[in-house]
Amino acid sequence: MDATRLPTLEDVARAAGVSRATASRVINGVRNVDPKLHSVVWDAVNATGYVPNRLARSLVTRRSGTIVLVVSDSETHDDDPFLGRFFADPYFGRVVGGLMKVLRVAGIQLALQMVGTAEQRTRLVGDLRHGQADGAVVLSLPASDPLPGMLTDAGVPAVLIGRPGEPVPINYVDLANETGAGLAADHLVARGARTIGMISGPPAVPAGADRIAGFRRAMARHGHGYVPLVSGNFTRESGEAATRDLLGRHPDIDGLFVANDLMALGAVITLRAAGRRVPGDVAVVGFDDSSAALAADPPLTTVRQPLEDMAAEAARLLLARLDDATMRPSSVIYEPALIVRGSA
Amino acid sequence: MDATRLPTLEDVARAAGVSRATASRVINGVRNVDPKLHSVVWDAVNATGYVPNRLARSLVTRRSGTIVLVVSDSETHDDDPFLGRFFADPYFGRVVGGLMKVLRVAGIQLALQMVGTAEQRTRLVGDLRHGQADGAVVLSLPASDPLPGMLTDAGVPAVLIGRPGEPVPINYVDLANETGAGLAADHLVARGARTIGMISGPPAVPAGADRIAGFRRAMARHGHGYVPLVSGNFTRESGEAATRDLLGRHPDIDGLFVANDLMALGAVITLRAAGRRVPGDVAVVGFDDSSAALAADPPLTTVRQPLEDMAAEAARLLLARLDDATMRPSSVIYEPALIVRGSA
DNA sequence: AGGGGGTTGGAGAGCGCTTTCCGAAGTGTG
DNA sequence: CACACTTCGGAAAGCGCTCTCCAACCCCCT
């Protein structure tokens, strides 16, 4: 198969009758090269079928043309099922889509890395410093994860999607989660719901915590000092379980805020199975405005999170940082919007 | 930030008082090294905070520890929306999940590459031959895509998910799509449906074509020589449009096979909006058994495609091929199963 | 005590590329 | 026509690592 050695720059140079250096200059479009040589070299490239060895190039330039998408593995390492869940979650796909939209036109590759153990974190940072990847986009981590600090300390270009747990001078893109949760609270109260519960995500993740805090704060403003709360893990199944739980403890519930659409979908299914009509008996507001919201019956009233835009912005931020190493960390916070559909 | 140069193997060797070669041997666990030196070297590694430069290593070993997931860009390059759709589709997530499950334990990274133009194909193959990635998993391509042949010709380890358009000696994992479509046909007929239509995927993709062929064949066996057919592109929206179209042309339809769940979801929504009850007036069978099937109301009767398992098998096949370059191309075909739920 | 076989560790040659440093040409001016 | 100045292309030094030789050494047997 690979009978012959791959053509190298040396071969091109020989074929073109110039030095390796000149060939390199032409191929990389560096100035200081006689225009006449241009075509000579390019012809040699085509004649030999030369493709640059990006590894070798990266080794010296310390630029790989690759961005790594870091996914926290900490919650997934014990129960395999969650791994599948995470990737199958529209959240992941929307982020990848948004990222690719920007990276593709910039000619940059995306690598995927799951990071859970301390050793993996060290290795990730090492790889980044070595130029194995030019930068990292880090998907919403548990607040306790030391990765953001490590990235900052290493001086590695990185952007978080979802704010860091501890304040750290690092780029990030986030949604005003508290505001979004407040929107949901306002809507449920305005609709006249009296007993309003919440199904949250994991409180250990900032996005989870912020939605809880925002919802509680807004509810308190409306005179509801106490909000029945059950936590899930952002999967539909956990939404179902949480709903059953909540229903058992507060059978009179007539309003429900669920911290993401997948769980909200589970909630709607469970509510209806329990004989409750949505929104007649229980009004449900979801979060994300993912494809799951439209799939539900009735379609979910939900808080829109423009994840694709956020991911694209993260990519842009990272690209800008790559161009200008002196760039100061900045954060972009998106405003959520309430999308009213059938469920509340 | 990166005040100091990163420690290199040279530094470790000096700290340990051995040669670079010996340090390398210890770190890579090569035999022929005095056990006493083991700890000396490892201590030096820890003391210096050494992390191997994988780029440099790959340059010489021609092994990168990376697998590239190739996604066809040909259909997406014109209309941006589809890009997002594709990644947000559970299909993509399930594949990534299945792949990661195997690759993670093997300590192998996953890179993502969209390939559309001839130049991108050439570059992809070049990168692979250069050892930028050890192998490729290629997601279901249009039948006309020349990539499988190029991969084979280059002698690059690769596995397709979804059979190649032209017979090519290459590894692939696929579902018995025709059988699956037949299952759907049998079920619809057995249920007593008289006028049965189909919403297909793009016929240009083998999986799309096979489901059409399988459905037609089975229907013909049941005496239905002609099957009303409208094509979609596997998105929910296209499922809605196709359903409206079909309904307009065949208002008496009472059975519908839809080539994936996302479109089936759209079909159910559209049917109900048109006043048809599912399954009362129209029985609907989907395909994939993705999360969308459970989200639908009623939950979708669907043909199960064990995509995670298929992807995992693809990864395993690739890994085996990496270990044994002489391995002959093989194919693994999974058998579909009909999952009966509420919609038919 | 001398030599054969087996281990062990070091020197050094690359892997394919970029890029600095220089010498050689080419250009214009006094 | 000589001189300073610019432009261009080549030689060669690495980037950090692996791995092939090969020299040195140890152990044991005769």
Secondary-structure blueprint:
Two copies of one chain form a homodimer.
Chain A: H1 9-16, H2 20-27, H3 35-48, H4 54-61, E1 66-72, H5 80-88, H6 90-105, E2 109-115, H7 118-130, E3 135-139, H8 147-154, E4 158-161, E5 171-175, H9 177-190, E6 196-200, H10 206-221, E7 229-231, H11 236-249, E8 255-258, H12 261-273, E9 283-288, H13 291-295, E10 301-304, H14 307-323, E11 331-334, E12 337-339
Parallel strand pairs in A: 1-2, 1-3, 3-4, 4-5, 5-11, 6-7, 6-8, 8-9, 9-10
Antiparallel strand pairs in A: 10-12
Helix pairs in contact in A: 1-2, 1-3, 6-14, 7-8, 9-10, 11-12
The structure holds a DNA duplex (30 and 30 nucleotides).
In short:
The structure is a homodimer of 344-residue chains. By secondary structure, chain A is of the alpha/beta class. Chain A has 3 domains: 9-52, lambda repressor-like DNA-binding domains (434 Repressor (Amino-terminal Domain)); 66-175 and 308-334, Rossmann fold; 177-304, Response regulator (Rossmann fold, 3-Layer(aba) Sandwich).
Keywords:
homodimer, 344 residues, alpha/beta, 434 Repressor (Amino-terminal Domain), Rossmann fold, 3 domains, 6-stranded parallel β-sheet, 6-stranded mixed β-sheet, 12 strands, 17% strand, elongated, DNA-binding
Structure description:
- A six-stranded parallel beta sheet of chain A has the order 2-1-3-4-5-11, with helices on both faces.
- In chain A, β9 (283-288), α13 (291-295) and β10 (301-304) form a beta-alpha-beta unit.
- Chain A is an alpha/beta fold and 344 residues long.
- Chain A contains 14 helices and twelve strands.
- Chain A has three domains: 9-52, 434 Repressor (Amino-terminal Domain) (Orthogonal Bundle), CATH 1.10.260.40; 66-175 and 308-334, Rossmann fold, CATH 3.40.50; 177-304, 3-Layer(aba) Sandwich (Rossmann fold).
- The mean pLDDT of chain A is 91.
- Helix content of chain A is 47%, strand content 17%.
- Chains A and B meet through α4, α5, α6, β2 and α7 of A and α4, α5, α6, β2 and α7 of B.
- β2 (109-115) of chain A pairs antiparallel with β2 of chain B.
- Chain A binds a DNA duplex (30 and 30 nucleotides) through α2 and α4.
